[in-house]
Amino acid sequence: MPRVIDTGEVIGVIAGLCKKACYELSDDFVHALKDAHEKEESPYGRDTLALLIENAAYAKAEQIACCHDTGTAVVIMEIGQEVCWRGIPLGEAVDAGVRKGYDEGYLRKSMVRDPLDRVNTGDNTPCVFHPEIVAGDKVRVTVMPKGGGSENMGAFTTLVPAQGEEGVKDFVMKTVSEAGGKTCPPVIVGVGVGGTMDKCAWLSKKALLRPVGKHSPVPHYARMEDELLARINSLGIGPLGMGGRMTALAVHIEYFPCHITALPVAVNLQCHASRFASTEI
Ligand code: SF4
Asked: Can you give the pTM of this predicted structure?
Protein backbone atom coordinates (compact mmCIF):
# COMPACT_ATOMS: atom_id res chain seq x y z
CA MET A 1 0.00 0.00 0.00
CA PRO A 2 1.44 3.40 -0.93
CA ARG A 3 1.57 6.06 1.77
CA VAL A 4 -0.68 8.95 0.75
CA ILE A 5 0.44 12.47 1.69
CA ASP A 6 -1.55 15.62 0.96
CA THR A 7 0.72 18.18 -0.70
CA GLY A 8 -0.81 20.84 1.53
CA GLU A 9 1.22 19.34 4.37
CA VAL A 10 4.38 20.39 2.59
CA ILE A 11 3.56 24.11 2.74
CA GLY A 12 3.95 24.56 6.49
CA VAL A 13 6.96 22.26 6.62
CA ILE A 14 8.86 24.25 4.00
CA ALA A 15 7.84 27.59 5.52
CA GLY A 16 9.30 26.48 8.85
CA LEU A 17 12.50 25.22 7.24
CA CYS A 18 13.02 28.52 5.35
CA LYS A 19 12.93 30.43 8.64
CA LYS A 20 15.05 27.95 10.59
CA ALA A 21 17.71 27.82 7.86
CA CYS A 22 18.00 31.60 7.67
CA TYR A 23 18.07 32.11 11.45
CA GLU A 24 20.21 29.21 12.66
CA LEU A 25 23.57 28.04 11.34
CA SER A 26 24.21 24.36 12.03
CA ASP A 27 26.17 23.39 15.15
CA ASP A 28 28.95 21.79 13.11
CA PHE A 29 29.37 24.95 11.04
CA VAL A 30 29.54 27.21 14.12
CA HIS A 31 32.02 24.77 15.66
CA ALA A 32 34.15 25.04 12.49
CA LEU A 33 34.04 28.86 12.74
CA LYS A 34 35.24 28.67 16.35
CA ASP A 35 37.99 26.26 15.38
CA ALA A 36 39.08 28.65 12.61
CA HIS A 37 39.13 31.50 15.13
CA GLU A 38 41.55 29.48 17.27
CA LYS A 39 43.82 28.78 14.30
CA GLU A 40 43.74 32.18 12.57
CA GLU A 41 47.05 34.03 12.81
CA SER A 42 45.99 37.40 11.37
CA PRO A 43 44.56 39.88 13.94
CA TYR A 44 42.08 41.22 11.35
CA GLY A 45 41.11 37.67 10.48
CA ARG A 46 40.59 36.75 14.14
CA ASP A 47 38.49 39.86 14.79
CA THR A 48 36.39 39.11 11.72
CA LEU A 49 35.80 35.52 12.77
CA ALA A 50 34.82 36.66 16.27
CA LEU A 51 32.21 38.95 14.70
CA LEU A 52 30.86 36.15 12.51
CA ILE A 53 30.53 33.85 15.54
CA GLU A 54 28.76 36.59 17.51
CA ASN A 55 26.51 37.32 14.53
CA ALA A 56 25.49 33.65 14.25
CA ALA A 57 24.69 33.45 17.97
CA TYR A 58 22.69 36.68 17.88
CA ALA A 59 20.66 35.62 14.84
CA LYS A 60 19.77 32.32 16.50
CA ALA A 61 18.88 33.90 19.85
CA GLU A 62 16.77 36.64 18.30
CA GLN A 63 15.37 34.46 15.47
CA ILE A 64 16.40 36.89 12.73
CA ALA A 65 18.25 36.31 9.47
CA CYS A 66 22.00 35.83 9.94
CA CYS A 67 22.59 37.67 6.62
CA HIS A 68 20.51 40.23 4.76
CA ASP A 69 20.82 38.14 1.58
CA THR A 70 18.45 35.28 2.31
CA GLY A 71 19.15 33.83 -1.07
CA THR A 72 17.54 31.73 -3.72
CA ALA A 73 15.52 29.04 -1.95
CA VAL A 74 16.93 25.70 -3.07
CA VAL A 75 14.57 22.91 -2.01
CA ILE A 76 15.67 19.29 -2.10
CA MET A 77 13.07 16.60 -1.57
CA GLU A 78 14.08 12.94 -1.29
CA ILE A 79 10.78 11.18 -1.91
CA GLY A 80 10.29 7.55 -0.98
CA GLN A 81 9.01 5.61 -3.97
CA GLU A 82 6.13 4.26 -1.87
CA VAL A 83 4.72 7.76 -1.39
CA CYS A 84 1.68 8.82 -3.37
CA TRP A 85 0.74 12.53 -3.45
CA ARG A 86 -2.73 14.03 -3.50
CA GLY A 87 -3.86 17.67 -3.51
CA ILE A 88 -2.39 20.59 -5.44
CA PRO A 89 0.64 19.88 -7.67
CA LEU A 90 3.73 19.27 -5.55
CA GLY A 91 5.74 22.05 -7.21
CA GLU A 92 3.01 24.57 -6.41
CA ALA A 93 2.94 23.44 -2.78
CA VAL A 94 6.71 23.82 -2.51
CA ASP A 95 6.58 27.37 -3.86
CA ALA A 96 3.65 28.15 -1.54
CA GLY A 97 5.82 27.02 1.39
CA VAL A 98 8.68 29.27 0.31
CA ARG A 99 6.29 32.20 -0.15
CA LYS A 100 4.84 31.68 3.35
CA GLY A 101 8.22 31.23 5.02
CA TYR A 102 9.83 34.29 3.45
CA ASP A 103 6.78 36.41 4.25
CA GLU A 104 6.32 35.28 7.86
CA GLY A 105 10.05 35.27 8.55
CA TYR A 106 10.73 38.80 7.25
CA LEU A 107 13.28 37.32 4.88
CA ARG A 108 14.49 39.35 1.89
CA LYS A 109 12.84 38.52 -1.41
CA SER A 110 15.58 38.31 -4.02
CA MET A 111 14.09 36.55 -7.05
CA VAL A 112 13.45 38.39 -10.33
CA ARG A 113 10.90 37.01 -12.79
CA ASP A 114 13.24 37.25 -15.80
CA PRO A 115 17.04 37.56 -15.71
CA LEU A 116 16.85 40.38 -18.28
CA ASP A 117 13.89 42.51 -17.20
CA ARG A 118 14.85 42.24 -13.50
CA VAL A 119 11.36 42.66 -11.99
CA ASN A 120 11.25 41.21 -8.45
CA THR A 121 8.59 38.52 -8.02
CA GLY A 122 7.98 39.93 -4.52
CA ASP A 123 7.79 36.61 -2.66
CA ASN A 124 11.14 34.86 -3.38
CA THR A 125 9.49 32.33 -5.67
CA PRO A 126 10.03 30.37 -7.74
CA CYS A 127 12.39 28.25 -5.72
CA VAL A 128 14.89 25.89 -7.33
CA PHE A 129 13.31 22.50 -6.65
CA HIS A 130 15.21 19.21 -6.81
CA PRO A 131 12.94 16.17 -6.26
CA GLU A 132 14.74 12.83 -6.02
CA ILE A 133 13.20 9.37 -5.77
CA VAL A 134 14.61 7.12 -3.04
CA ALA A 135 13.59 3.87 -1.34
CA GLY A 136 10.91 3.77 1.37
CA ASP A 137 7.77 5.69 2.30
CA LYS A 138 9.27 8.80 3.91
CA VAL A 139 10.03 12.24 2.47
CA ARG A 140 13.16 14.11 3.53
CA VAL A 141 12.91 17.83 2.88
CA THR A 142 15.89 20.18 2.88
CA VAL A 143 15.77 23.93 2.35
CA MET A 144 19.07 25.56 1.41
CA PRO A 145 18.89 29.34 0.96
CA LYS A 146 21.85 30.17 -1.32
CA GLY A 147 23.20 33.73 -1.20
CA GLY A 148 24.09 35.54 -4.39
CA GLY A 149 27.66 36.55 -3.57
CA SER A 150 29.01 33.05 -3.15
CA GLU A 151 26.78 31.46 -5.80
CA ASN A 152 27.94 34.01 -8.38
CA MET A 153 31.54 32.88 -8.09
CA GLY A 154 30.94 29.20 -8.88
CA ALA A 155 32.39 27.81 -12.11
CA PHE A 156 32.24 24.84 -14.45
CA THR A 157 34.62 23.45 -17.04
CA THR A 158 35.14 20.27 -18.98
CA LEU A 159 38.77 19.18 -18.95
CA VAL A 160 40.25 16.63 -21.30
CA PRO A 161 40.77 13.35 -19.44
CA ALA A 162 44.57 13.59 -19.73
CA GLN A 163 44.52 16.65 -17.47
CA GLY A 164 43.51 14.28 -14.65
CA GLU A 165 43.83 15.09 -10.96
CA GLU A 166 46.22 18.00 -11.51
CA GLY A 167 43.77 19.62 -13.91
CA VAL A 168 40.95 19.30 -11.37
CA LYS A 169 43.05 20.83 -8.59
CA ASP A 170 44.25 23.68 -10.84
CA PHE A 171 40.66 24.54 -11.75
CA VAL A 172 39.54 24.56 -8.11
CA MET A 173 42.47 26.79 -7.13
CA LYS A 174 41.85 29.18 -10.04
CA THR A 175 38.15 29.47 -9.12
CA VAL A 176 38.78 30.14 -5.42
CA SER A 177 41.65 32.59 -6.15
CA GLU A 178 39.60 34.61 -8.61
CA ALA A 179 36.64 34.70 -6.19
CA GLY A 180 38.82 36.26 -3.49
CA GLY A 181 36.76 37.97 -0.79
CA LYS A 182 33.61 38.26 -2.94
CA THR A 183 32.25 34.99 -1.52
CA CYS A 184 32.27 36.22 2.12
CA PRO A 185 34.82 33.68 3.37
CA PRO A 186 35.48 31.46 5.21
CA VAL A 187 33.89 29.24 2.61
CA ILE A 188 33.05 25.62 2.10
CA VAL A 189 34.34 24.58 -1.32
CA GLY A 190 31.99 22.11 -3.02
CA VAL A 191 33.53 20.25 -5.96
CA GLY A 192 31.74 18.01 -8.44
CA VAL A 193 33.81 15.73 -10.65
CA GLY A 194 32.28 13.70 -13.49
CA GLY A 195 28.77 13.14 -14.78
CA THR A 196 27.41 15.53 -17.38
CA MET A 197 27.44 19.33 -17.17
CA ASP A 198 24.16 19.45 -15.22
CA LYS A 199 24.98 16.48 -12.98
CA CYS A 200 28.43 17.85 -12.21
CA ALA A 201 27.07 21.24 -11.13
CA TRP A 202 24.50 19.52 -8.93
CA LEU A 203 27.20 17.35 -7.31
CA SER A 204 29.17 20.47 -6.41
CA LYS A 205 26.13 21.94 -4.66
CA LYS A 206 25.21 18.72 -2.86
CA ALA A 207 28.79 18.52 -1.60
CA LEU A 208 28.05 21.64 0.48
CA LEU A 209 25.46 19.72 2.51
CA ARG A 210 28.01 17.28 3.90
CA PRO A 211 28.90 17.85 7.60
CA VAL A 212 31.74 20.39 7.64
CA GLY A 213 35.10 18.70 7.06
CA LYS A 214 33.71 15.17 6.69
CA HIS A 215 35.97 13.52 4.15
CA SER A 216 34.98 11.70 0.99
CA PRO A 217 34.90 7.96 1.68
CA VAL A 218 37.10 7.47 -1.41
CA PRO A 219 40.79 7.72 -0.37
CA HIS A 220 42.10 9.64 -3.39
CA TYR A 221 39.31 12.23 -3.15
CA ALA A 222 39.86 12.54 0.62
CA ARG A 223 43.56 13.17 -0.03
CA MET A 224 42.70 15.82 -2.63
CA GLU A 225 40.32 17.50 -0.16
CA ASP A 226 43.13 17.85 2.40
CA GLU A 227 45.65 19.07 -0.17
CA LEU A 228 43.27 21.64 -1.66
CA LEU A 229 42.26 22.95 1.77
CA ALA A 230 45.92 23.52 2.70
CA ARG A 231 46.64 25.26 -0.62
CA ILE A 232 43.52 27.46 -0.39
CA ASN A 233 44.42 28.48 3.15
CA SER A 234 47.84 29.59 1.91
CA LEU A 235 46.33 32.12 -0.52
CA GLY A 236 46.07 34.84 2.16
CA ILE A 237 42.46 35.84 1.32
CA GLY A 238 41.25 35.27 4.89
CA PRO A 239 37.88 35.83 6.60
CA LEU A 240 35.72 38.24 4.54
CA GLY A 241 38.81 38.87 2.41
CA MET A 242 40.48 40.81 5.24
CA GLY A 243 43.66 38.76 4.97
CA GLY A 244 44.62 35.66 6.92
CA ARG A 245 44.80 31.88 6.66
CA MET A 246 41.20 30.86 7.23
CA THR A 247 39.84 31.28 3.71
CA ALA A 248 38.11 27.89 3.66
CA LEU A 249 36.79 25.64 6.40
CA ALA A 250 36.57 22.54 4.24
CA VAL A 251 36.74 21.15 0.71
CA HIS A 252 34.14 18.51 -0.13
CA ILE A 253 34.45 16.52 -3.37
CA GLU A 254 31.64 14.42 -4.85
CA TYR A 255 32.14 12.34 -7.99
CA PHE A 256 30.10 10.44 -10.56
CA PRO A 257 31.08 8.19 -13.51
CA CYS A 258 31.48 10.06 -16.79
CA HIS A 259 31.96 9.67 -20.55
CA ILE A 260 35.31 8.39 -21.85
CA THR A 261 36.02 11.70 -23.59
CA ALA A 262 35.24 14.00 -20.69
CA LEU A 263 36.40 15.18 -17.29
CA PRO A 264 33.76 17.67 -16.07
CA VAL A 265 34.56 19.75 -12.98
CA ALA A 266 32.25 22.16 -11.12
CA VAL A 267 32.98 24.34 -8.11
CA ASN A 268 30.21 25.74 -5.91
CA LEU A 269 31.26 28.04 -3.09
CA GLN A 270 29.36 28.41 0.19
CA CYS A 271 29.87 31.60 2.18
CA HIS A 272 29.99 31.88 5.98
CA ALA A 273 26.16 32.08 5.96
CA SER A 274 26.02 28.32 5.34
CA ARG A 275 22.32 27.75 5.66
CA PHE A 276 20.25 24.63 5.39
CA ALA A 277 17.59 22.91 7.44
CA SER A 278 16.05 19.48 7.00
CA THR A 279 13.20 17.41 8.34
CA GLU A 280 11.33 14.21 7.53
CA ILE A 281 7.67 13.90 6.70
S1 SF4 B 1 27.76 35.76 0.06
FE2 SF4 B 1 26.73 34.87 1.83
S3 SF4 B 1 27.38 36.06 3.64
FE4 SF4 B 1 27.88 37.23 1.76
S5 SF4 B 1 26.12 38.61 1.48
FE6 SF4 B 1 25.73 36.76 0.24
S7 SF4 B 1 24.58 35.37 1.60
FE8 SF4 B 1 25.47 36.96 2.88
From this structure: 0.95
